[in-house]
Amino acid sequence: MTTDEHPLEGWDPGPLEGAALADVIEQAFDYRGDVTLVRENGSELVGYVFNRNAEAATPFVQVFATDGDDPVTIPYADIRSIRFTGRDTAAGTSYAAWLRRREAAKAVGSRGA
Amino acid sequence: MSVPLSQMWTVATYVLKQRLRRNRRYPLVLMLEPLFRCNLACAGCGKIQYPGHVLRKHLTVEQCLAAVEECGAPMVSIPGGEPLMYPDIGRLVAELVKRRKYVYLCTNAILLKEKLEEGIFAPSKYLSFSVHMDGLREEHDEAVCRDGVYDQAVEGIREALRRGFRVTTNTTLFDGASPIRMQMFFDEMMDLGVEGMMLSPGYSYSKAPDQEHFLRRQKTHELFSKMLSNPKKSWKFNQSPLFLQFLMGKWDFECTPWGNPTYNLFGWQRPCYLLQEGYAASFKELMETTRWEGYGHKSGNEKCKDCMVHCGYEPTAVDTAFASWKGFKATVAATLTGRL
């Protein structure tokens, strides 16, 4: 389920191909959380998409899997779907939220004093 | 200006060699990020928002050295993440110094005293701790979103200076910065005994929590003009005077996005230290396949519109000093007189 603050977190666009797949890969590349890549053979890889190249002779994504050390390269053609399963680490940490926490901490501190 | 003569000479001969070879695109400073992990979560930073398993990874020293050799830049800046959290930071720095690279280790200094006491670093003209200081205590602690960090950084600076290390500061300025408070900050840093200060306006990272306080161009000119138009003789800046004059609105520079190439866990970052539009597997691939014309103020790229950050414009300033008599004379005059 997505929310305004986490617009992609939890999103499952379903089976993808062509331009729709390329578009979702772009969003996965921009996403600061893990995704689950479903491959054409049905296997799944959970990890962080840190790179993609749609203009290469064989377009590919590069992923750091949650359970691996080295990056994994997967051709676009081998991807059936991408689910945004991990927490978006760039969301929910707004400056306004920090200011609120800071003011609250100060208030607690001054009451303690 | 406070850049040591040997460093100036190294940079000057390097730039002149590139110009003689008619090499229009050359790197000046390698931004080497051995890890993304940090012990702070600053509001203006967009560098550390990754899943835990990515934050736990880091480059090996061998990967770092291979990148340094491949790039060939005379200076290496080690930001991050917090480089003092990198387990092999002592060995990495020693290897870079052995290769006569001028190293700026960019740190928030929370761990500096502890690491110095462990004895993992040796003083060298090639090594400078570049301590992140975004202003006086109140402003700095607010910028790093944690109280007490300013005092820890000052303690680290004192310890490094006491042990004979080169120490500079790096300061990012945001909208709302007070010129008077910043001038007080310059006094305080020089009183501490740092070799020089580096200044830059912040960049509006798309992943940074705080999107509201980044400086736009006109405001940058106004702020830097107010701060620097009548500089005290005691203030030393460890950067190109032409870059500071650019921030004051005295030069109209274009970005040099390849000037400070970035290497990290993901590879060679396109196109620059600030934007993440993909990664190349080699430095050669980065230089040859990036569409450079799509970046910079004049390109019309919305992401570059207000950017005046040091990593894009300081290389332009350095190149300008060797590209024209006007640039050379302005650099010499500012270096000798301290006037901007």
Sheet with the most strands, sense and barrel status of chain A: 5 strands, antiparallel
CA-based gyration radius of chain A: 18 Å
Tally of helical segments of chain A: 2
CATH secondary-structure class of chain B: Alpha Beta
Mean pLDDT of chain B: 93
Assigned CATH class of chain A = Mainly Beta
Mean pLDDT of chain A: 87
Task: Report the CATH topology name of chain B.
Answer: TIM Barrel
Assembly classification: heterodimer
Low-confidence segments of chain A: none
- Number of self-contained structural domains of chain A: 1
Protein chain pair with the most extensive contact, residues per chain = A-B, 24 and 21 residues
Element pattern of chain A in H and E: HEEEEEH
Secondary structural class of chain B: alpha/beta
Give structural attributes.
heterodimer, A: 113 residues, SH3 type barrels, 2 helices, 5 strands, 27% strand, B: alpha/beta, TIM Barrel, 14% strand, globular
Structure description:
The complex is a heterodimer of chains A (113) and B (340). With 113 residues, chain A is α+β, with helices and mostly antiparallel strands. Chain A has a single domain (18-112), classed as SH3 type barrels. Chain A has two helices and five strands. Chain B has 13 helices and nine strands. In chain B, helix 3 (61-71) packs parallel to helix 4. In chain B, helix 4 (89-98) links the parallel strand 2 and strand 3. The model of chain B has no long low-confidence stretch (mean pLDDT 93). Chain B is α/β, with parallel strands linked by helices and 340 residues long. Chain B has helices spanning 5-20, 52-55, 61-71, 89-98, 112-118, 137-143, 149-162, 179-192, 217-228, 241-247, 283-289, 310-323, 325-337, and strands at residues 29-32, 75-78, 102-107, 127-132, 166-173, 196-201, 262-264, 267-271, 276-280. Chain B has a single domain (5-337), classed as Alpha-Beta Barrel (TIM Barrel). Chain B starts with a helix and ends with a helix. At the A-B interface, strand 2 and helix 2 of A face loops of B.
